[in-house]
Amino acid sequence: MSDDPLSRAVDTLWHSMRAFTCATPEHLPAQISDLGKLAKLLRNPAEHPSEPKFRKIKLSNAAITRILAPPGARAVLQACGFVAGTSADEMLELGEVDPPTIGLL
Question: What CDD domains does the entry give (predicted)?
């Protein structure tokens, strides 16, 4: 396992989702869908850099709560530059991101 935060977060997420799938294989389609949505949360800011709405994730949203439930999911977002927001709502906001990290998104 690598020492960088993104690799550690992805590894944690992969192991937690694998364990959950082994225990409850009937949930595999939902897990695959949620992983796709997590990837979209990461891709949107790179694909639409001038759209502020793609730089904020409202944590009270039920779908977001489900997507971020597995251990490591939130850490993946944080390793890619999302930080706790400054607004009254509980949010993650994408701060300034360097070009190599944008390439990962």
Answer: PUB
> Which phi-psi region, left, alpha or beta, contains residue 10 (left: φ > 0; alpha: ψ -120 to 50)?
alpha
Number of domains in the chain: 1
Residue-number span of the structural domain to which 21 is assigned: 5-104
Asked if the model's pLDDT at residue 105 lies above 80, the reply is: no
Closest CA to 35 of 21, 47, 46: 21
Distance CA 70, CA 53 (A): 24
Residue 1: band (very low, low, confident or very high) from pLDDT cuts 50, 70, 90: low
Residue partners of 55: CB distance under 8 A and separation at least 6: 45, 93, 94
- The whole-model pTM stands at 0.77
- Name every residue whose Cβ is closer than 8 Å to that of residue 13 and which is 6 or more positions away in sequence: 70, 71, 72, 73, 75, 76
Tens of pLDDT, residue by residue over 68-84, are 998 888 988 888 889 88
Query: Residue 19 — φ and ψ, nearest 5°?
Result: -65, -40
